[in-house]
């Protein structure tokens, strides 16, 4: 809203708006604006609604929790998809490393031993990648359920 | 600092801290709008119902629009519903009576009482223009009416308000 940047007192702003809104009213316009400014600016909210934001937030908590549940798969998808982009390059590099390990071991020991070492290496890599990608939804879900009651409600 | 529209985008996914921030930012202006519209009656209910509607319909919020305009549009609709509900109740005259009693207690003219005497369409333009500081274009969006209608309603409202103030002065 325009008032956010306007640091003038509310009554002064109100008077200018009134003058603007009655631009074609000719004589008596300023007096009219003054009278209405005095009248309107005398009306300030009197009740104390400071507890309302907290109560409202409390009321909306179940609705927000439902939204978080529905939104989680989408957010996981949008985080996991970009993370999958470099995966082909990582796999190609891992295959190259695997071959570099397999060839000298097969030359020194038997191909069975080299196959066993390569197999263990592939399993460890798969476990590492799987755990990395599985961590994404876990981290997102933990962010959702983190307690926020300690965050003060800004009074504005 | 995130914009209102960005925060609204996070509320879609159930981000409670984003909602908390939005409620904090608009608390005073929203409570003020409702209080001035209803004369201080049922403010809590309308305030909470407004936020319930906001959260319920946040998926439909077009982020190219201003969040404040959308929020005030919903709040005004809630106030109108409240006014309609009260109009059909047998205690419909209660607002002005209640406001009138406050008025008697004050030596100066009570703007709250005068606002309560304005027709709803005129009251809402006065509140949005002079208390919420909206431009005519923004008011047209909030009230879903043409800018020309805003102008004419505002003009009529101020004239009526001035007349009511004169009446009130003459009575004292």
Helix/strand order of chain A, N-terminal first: HHHHH
**Rounded mean pLDDT score of chain B:** 84
Strand tally of chain A, please?
A: 0
Question: Roughly how many Å apart are the termini of chain B?
Answer: 51 Å
Task: Give the key terms.
heterodimer; A: 156 residues; mainly alpha; 5 helices; disordered C terminus; B: 172 residues; 76% helix; elongated
Care to describe what's here?
Mean pLDDT of chain A is 77; it is low at 1-7 and 147-156. With 156 residues, chain A is mostly helical. The relative contact order of chain A is 0.07. In chain A, helix 1 crosses helix 2 (29-41) and helix 4 (87-108) runs antiparallel to helix 5 (111-145). Chain A has helices spanning 10-21, 29-41, 52-84, 87-108, 111-145. Chain B is mostly helical. The termini of chain B are far apart. The chains are: A mainly alpha (156), B mainly alpha (172). Chains A and B meet through helix 1, helix 2 and helix 3 of A and helix 2, helix 3, helix 6, helix 7 and helix 9 of B.
Task: Map the helices and strands.
The complex is a heterodimer of chains A (156) and B (172).
Chain A (H helix, E strand, L loop, with lengths): L9 H12 L7 H13 L10 H33 L2 H22 L2 H35 L11
Helix pairs in contact in A: 1-2, 3-5, 4-5
Chain B lengths: L3 H8 L4 H23 L4 H14 L10 H22 L5 H12 L5 H7 L2 H12 L4 H8 L3 H25 L1
Helix pairs in contact in B: 1-2, 2-3, 2-4, 2-7, 3-4, 4-8, 5-6, 7-9, 8-9
């Amino acid at each position: 809203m325009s008032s956010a940047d306007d640091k003038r007192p509310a009554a002064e702003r109100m008077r200018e708006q009134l003058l603007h809104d009655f631009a074609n009213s000719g004589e008596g316009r300023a007096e009219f604006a003054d009278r209405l400014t005095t009248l309107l600016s005398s009306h300030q909210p009197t009740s104390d609604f400071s507890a309302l934001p907290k109560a409202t937030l409390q009321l909306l908590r179940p609705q927000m929790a439902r939204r978080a549940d529905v939104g989680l798969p989408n957010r996981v998808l949008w985080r996991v998809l970009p993370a999958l982009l470099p995966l082909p390059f990582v796999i190609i590099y891992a295959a190259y490393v695997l071959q570099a390990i397999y060839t000298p071991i097969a030359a020194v020991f038997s191909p069975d031993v080299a196959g066993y070492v390569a197999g263990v290496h592939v399993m460890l890599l798969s476990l590492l990648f799987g755990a990395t990608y599985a961590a994404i939804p876990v981290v997102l879900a933990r962010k959702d359920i983190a307690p926020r009651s300690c965050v003060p409600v800004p009074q504005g | 600092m995130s914009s209102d529209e960005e925060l609204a985008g996070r509320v879609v996914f159930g981000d409670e801290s984003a909602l908390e921030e939005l409620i904090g930012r608009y608390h005073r202006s929203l409570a003020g709008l409702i209080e001035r519209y209803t004369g201080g009656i049922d403010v809590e209910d309308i305030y909470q119902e407004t936020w319930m509607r906001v959260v319920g319909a946040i998926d439909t919020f077009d982020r190219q629009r201003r969040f404040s305009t959308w929020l005030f549009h919903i709040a005004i609709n809630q106030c109108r519903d409240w006014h309609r509900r009260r109009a059909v109740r047998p205690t419909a005259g209660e607002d002005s009576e209640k406001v009138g009693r406050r008025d008697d207690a004050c030596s100066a003219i009570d703007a709250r009482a005068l606002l309560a005497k304005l027709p709803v369409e005129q009251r809402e333009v006065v509140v949005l223009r002079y208390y919420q500081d909206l431009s005519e274009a923004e008011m047209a969006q909030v009230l879903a009416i043409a800018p020309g209608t805003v102008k004419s309603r505002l003009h009529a409202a101020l004239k009526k308000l001035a007349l009511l103030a004169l009446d009130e002065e003459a009575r004292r």
